[in-house]
Amino acid sequence: MMCFRPFYQMLSALAYLHSLGIVHSNLKPENILLDENGNAKIGDYGIAQKMINKQTLKQARTEVYAAPEVHSQNKMIFASNIWTLAVIIIEMLTGVHPFAGRNQYETVENITKGKMISLPQFIQGELKDMLMNMLNMV
Predict the structure, then answer these.
(1) What's the topology of domain 2-135?
(2) Going along 9-120, which residue ranges are E strands?
(3) C-alpha distances in angstroms, 20 versus 48, 101, 126?
(4) What SS3 string covers 79-96?
(5) What single DSSP character describes residue 123?
(6) Is this structure's pTM higher than 0.90?
(7) pLDDT band at 128 (very low <50, low <70, confident <90, very high)
């Protein structure tokens, strides 16, 4: 289906970065760019980091898109990017951050506690399974 192409392209871009040992340290919706043909690109590599010893300390990031281990353990791993991409995809599909709170502090608290909103019925089957697996990688 055409709507899944950008998701595949985002995952492919992350896989390529990870194959080079690079983790994107500030993945967020504003850094997902679509060209005139609907192709997805990941931008803002200004704070992308080379992984050392399979983890890297957090630097600049957007708190509400940082994976749980970034908040709780002050580390970013390859799986952190996958978790964040799942959050972005869910938000693209629903218009709502899956860990949304009344404010940024509450959203971060929901992330660290794994307190996610229920996914709408239209997210089901393989798509739902894939997203849940991406969120459970960390």
Answers:
(1) Transferase(Phosphotransferase); domain 1 (1.10.510)
(2) 22-23, 32-34, 40-42, 49-50, 56-57, 75-76
(3) 11, 35, 28
(4) HHHHHHHHHHHHHHHHCC
(5) S
(6) no
(7) very high
